[in-house]
Amino acid sequence: MKASTENWSGRIPLMLAHCAGMVDLVALPVWVGALIAQYQFTPQQAGGLATLFLIGAVISSLFFAPRFNRIDSRTAAAAGFAIACLAFFAAAFVSDFAPLAVLHFVAGVAIGCALSFTHGTIAHSANPHRLFAIVGMALGVFAIVFLGITPNLIAAFGGPMLFRTFAVIMAVAAIAAIVAFPTATARSGEDIIEEVSHLRPAVWFGIAGVSCMALTQAMMFSFLERIGIDRGFGREAVTGVLITLGFVNLFPAPLAALLERRVSPHRVLFVGPIVQALIALAISFGSSFPAYAAPAIFFAAVMIFSHTFAFGVLSKLDPTARALAGTPAMLMTGSAVGPILGGTLVQGFGYGSLGVAAVVFAVIAVFLFSKVHAPDTPILAAPDEPKAV
Q1: Which residues pair with 183 in a beta bridge?
Q2: Sequence-separated (6 or more) residues with CB below 8 Å from residue 74
Q3: For 4, which DSSP code?
Q4: Which pLDDT tens digit goes with each residue over 77-122?
Q5: For the chain: N or C, fewer Cβ within 10 A?
């Protein structure tokens, strides 16, 4: 059977690719925590290394997304993950900031390429909302395994084990891409629409809104582990919170798929940033373990649920899939700023400042998402079709 987005032989490589490419969404607390605890970097330095990785992904995605329809997706995805594997493997053998910075950036560039072609392929499927929910559910399973195993491996074998784990993840994704990366299902009228060079203004507002939510996600999530440790809750208890968070992350993607036609996506995009900010406030100011743990386990789920709806909305606004091929750029533009901004705020003002900043970005995100459903001139209508009102 030929692998495609409409059968499981093609969906499984996409699931693996999504998990590998979105590793920061799962790994940031362990990643930044290991850089601080194992490598003795300051919060700003540790956040800066994560930021360099994400900046590399943004630059790469901005380059490859407009070229999505002109480059072979299987080759690009496989090559990207393979290069990322080599970069992370090399990172396991160095401990100084400068070489780690270079390797983080290289890995980010490679993953940005691979993930752009992964998400562009998903966007070209028959039902992008549903398929993105499927790969999102896979990310939830991946989170349970990663957060359940990796902190203990790092505690037992040291910081380099983090990068060896990343290397193995990237190798699996590269092999899956080589073997069965799917072909996308073409959409009607695509050849006409694809000639149009400009995206709708509503698409850009949606991209900016997702970036704001990603910024809050990365800023807060990067220090989720350190908040618990520094408040004296103990490593085992904090690891338990991370594992529980992974289990919770199993549900938002399938729930988003179930509610696709039952809930207004614009309502989700309006409420999502508000809920995200309220949870961030609770985590950053909660002084007892229950006050920290209860909101923490739901934090990433808000982003996964909201982004699934955003993905579906943007796929309808941009049939060329160029915008969604740039998903790494829209997510990681915000995410790239998050770790270093969070580290700077923590060093200067303490953990409470993260919650205050989250509120500010939530207000901006709500404003941006309010423009996504505004009346907009269609990009191009086929001659026999009426223009959208």
Answers
A1: 4
A2: 177, 178, 181
A3: B
A4: 999 999 999 999 999 999 999 999 999 999 999 999 998 889 888 8
A5: C
**Which residue in 377, 379, 327, 323 sits closest to 189, CA to CA?**
379
- 38 burial type by CB count under 10 A (0-12 exposed, 13-18 middle, 19+ buried): middle
pLDDT digits (tens, 9 = 90+) for 264-292: 888 888 899 999 999 999 998 888 899 99
Residues 6+ apart with CB under 8 A from 181: 3, 10, 13, 14, 17, 73, 74, 77, 78, 121
Local structure of residue 188 (DSSP, 8 states): T
Q: Which two tokens stand for residue 282?
A: 């609770």
**Residue-wise DSSP of 308-332:** HHHHHHHHHH-TT-HHHHTHHHHHH
From the list 50, 166, 56, 190, the residue with the least C-alpha distance to 110 is 56
DSSP one-letter code for 183: B
- C-alpha angle 132/138/140, rounded to 5°? 105
Please tell me the distance from the alpha carbon of residue 66 to that of residue 387, in angstroms, as a whole number: 25
Note the CATH number of domain 8-370: 1.20.1250.20
CA distance 66 to 54: 19
Which helix or strand (DSSP H or E) is residue 13 part of? helix 8-21
| Distances in whole angstroms, Cα of residue 37 to Cα of each of 30, 42, 287 | 10, 9, 22
| Residue spans per domain, the chain | 8-370
- Taking residue 179's Cβ as centre, other Cβ atoms within 10 Å add up to 13
Q: Which amino acid is at 154?
A: I
The whole-angstrom separation of Cα 254 and Cα 269 is 17
pTM for this model (two decimals): 0.73
Which helix (DSSP H) or strand (DSSP E) does residue 43 occupy? helix 43-64
